[in-house]
Amino acid sequence: xxxxxxxxxxxxxxxxxxxxxxxxxxxxxxxxxxxxxxxxxxxxxxxxxxxxxxxxxxxxxxxxxxxxxxxxxxxxxxxxxxxxxxxxxxxxxxxxxxxxxxxxxxxxxxxxxxxxxxxxxxxxxxxxxxxxxxxxxxxxxxxxxxxxxxxxxxxxxxxxxxxxxxxxxxxxxxxxxxxxxxxxxxxxxxxxxxxxxxxxxxxxxxxxxxxxxxxxxxxxxxxxxxxxxxxxxxxxxxxxxxxxxxxxxxxxxxxxxxxxxxxxxxxxxxxxxxxxxxxxxxxxxxxxxxxxxxxxxxxxxxxxxxxxxxxxxxxxxxxxx
Amino acid sequence: xxxxxxxxxxxxxxxxxxxxxxxxxxxxxxxxxxxxxxxxxxxxxxxxxxxxxxxxxxxxxxxxxxxxxxxxxxxxxxxxxxxxxxxxxxxxxxxxxxxxxxxxxxxxxxxxxxxxxxxxxxxxxxxxxxxxxxxxxxxxxxxxxxxxxxxxxxxxxxxxxxxxxxxxxxxxxxxxxxxxxxxxxxxxxxxxxxxxxxxxxxxxxxxxxxxxxxxxxxxxxxxxxxxxxxxxxxxxxxxxxxxxxxxxxxxxxxxxxxxxxxxxxxxxxxxxxxxxxxxxxxxxxxxxxxxx
Amino acid sequence: xxxxxxxxxxxxxxxxxxxxxxxxxxxxxxxxxxxxxxxxxxxxxxxxxxxxxxxxxxxxxxxxxxxxxxxxxxxxxxxxxxxxxxxxxxxxxxxxxxxxxxxxxxxxxxxxxxxxxxxxxxxxxxxxxxxxxxxxxxxxxxxxxxxxxxxxxxxxxxxxxxxxxxxxxxxxxxxxxxxxxxxxxxxxxxxxxxxxxxxxxxxxxxxxxxxxxxxxxxxxxxxxxxxxxxxxxxxxxxxxxx
Lengths: 321, 292, 242
Description:
The complex is a heterotrimer of chains A (321), B (292) and C (242).
Chain A: H1 2-25, H2 28-51, H3 60-78, H4 80-102, H5 107-127, H6 129-132, H7 148-168, H8 175-183, H9 185-189, H10 195-218, H11 226-229, H12 232-245, H13 251-271, H14 278-290, H15 294-306, H16 311-320
Chain B: H1 2-33, H2 39-58, H3 62-88, H4 93-115, E1 131-133, E2 136-138, H5 140-162, H6 164-174, H7 176-181, H8 186-211, H9 218-233, H10 238-258, H11 266-280
Antiparallel strand pairs in B: 1-2
Chain C: E1 2-13, E2 16-27, E3 31-35, H1 42-49, E4 57-62, E5 65-66, H2 72-78, E6 80-82, H3 95-105, H4 119-125, H5 141-153, E7 159-163, H6 171-186, E8 190-194, H7 198-204, E9 207-212, E10 215-220, H8 222-227, H9 229-235
Parallel strand pairs in C: 3-8, 3-9, 6-7, 7-8
Antiparallel strand pairs in C: 1-2, 1-4, 4-5, 9-10
């Protein structure tokens, strides 16, 4: 227990260290890129938490947007701390409702329903200009007085929180039960697992973490229109980042976000501003064919190959033979 | 007022035929392979561009363009299936989803690089004469779209229900393992369903060029609608897709026409309807309902 | 005392009544065989009692607690556990993790059988030889069967339904599982086995219940039940092995 806690703290420190380094070097462009990368990592972690229960969402832009809009609109009323808390709780609430509605939906229907949900939410924003500014957007209060290095530190803190949440759901209490729900919900129920409650819990937590990502994003520049946060890009990105990095892990989505962003920046240099996303498509296809378990899967294979067989296992092998 | 309503309804119905053409090919493929093929939208887009180029560069009639697009996209679908998607069939659902999304992103951005993101309009003379019914006019191209869309739709239905391959498709989608034991070449059947779906996408691309604009992102807009339509009607249910298309096109068309500023969000209403339908019927209006 | 009572229950799929107005008692603290020809409703019976497919009418009682219409996980809490004939466990989970799921979620003050205290104890109790850190994807069929029994025992059941836990096992493995079932029974658990092989039933069970077409055909001590004319008739030509 203590050892695993130490490992985890080490991991969080390792996640935070590059950001600290960047803040110290004071490179404005790199800091901007890092902020964007970490926000997509948080969103991907949110997506992964939900997918561990077998719910493959294509609608996380909804929570990203609701979180951003929620905290932006509530901060002037409730203050920054309560405003963000309320905005994120709102995401949890919406996620519980969506979770309850989509509970009975099978595979493809679930995915299409989540996608439709994110499009519907965008419409809701457009038809309520009095409350949400409609298509003209809103002006959320900026984080950290608009100072990019401080914003990076703040977003890094949020990522560590998201990583901690992800780790809780990879712990003994949730990981086996979640995987059992994903693989065989009847077996999970026959093992005493309240399947419905856990699926909705996963939805709520996932929605809130995605809302956190959205709140960070909206607080960067002080100006947001619906197309910024509700675009399908935010629906696809967490799926791509997580599958490329490695599902069912905390490190996978973070590494995936970094790698994908790196490739994106390289592509922007090579291809230019228009159509650079062609690299996204190519990378995704190459990964699906070559590394279907993502970078984490590759890591596991490499570890297995280079780790010498432990003393203990060898003795047992002899006993068995 | 009444003429305006009739006019809007007729135009919406011609859009419904277009949507039905896109959705029929998609639901045939999805119903058989159980893969959400996002690249279907890009296939439609490629069909639209091909029809457009054939007309503007070579002066070839859009009738010919549609047929050529159908053939070209059928060939491309076969290549994509053999080279890529066949490998993905055995992977997990999220990988399949990401695979077709990746394919869609790739084709879309290649198109943007090659042809720029700007919309184009194919100014071909109408394929059919304009219909005039006591003040209500329906442009000839809309009639052509409605006709071809319906023919395509009936063709998909007939292939699935009245041919030997159709029987094999239904069998292979119900239980691939059992179908393989029964001597059906499941891989071949899957490929065929992709090829037929691709051909339908190509032809519907031609329809898009006739009544909408030609633009790389048009496929994304259409495929999202097509998914809503096939979920509404029930996955793999071809007549269901027709009803779904009518519901979507009518809501969208009437909202855009009669609600102030409805144009920007009219199509969103359709997704609200879809969510409501799925709450009551988790497998769509006409899909097979699973045991509780 | 009664382990499970079923009172006038019906389960229908479309027009087919898989369980048809069934009333029966399963005695407590016994090993009961639930038998019947293919399609007689045995599996539906297990699904019904465990809450997976609730009956359309009637009542299911666990001793004196009504469990009709409860969710499957609630029924597990009440003390009824079942195994699956074909165990589909997530292949990325370890033996330890699979057994830990009911240990964590099916909380009750009933003791685990055989004085077990942990997932590893239960694995050993059920005769699982591989390390508890072994992933399920690497287990043999007979180990998966044992794991499935261990998982069900981790629910701390009063009543345990074993759905063909010995199907397809070697003679040696079958003997071991028979021994295990006897131990489980000796620790105070009411056991119901669904079995095709009459030799196993004759060795293991003190009571037999025969279903046919969703109805109770016969019940009593296995040697008598198995020689009844009506039972033989129901089985005729269905691979009856004695």
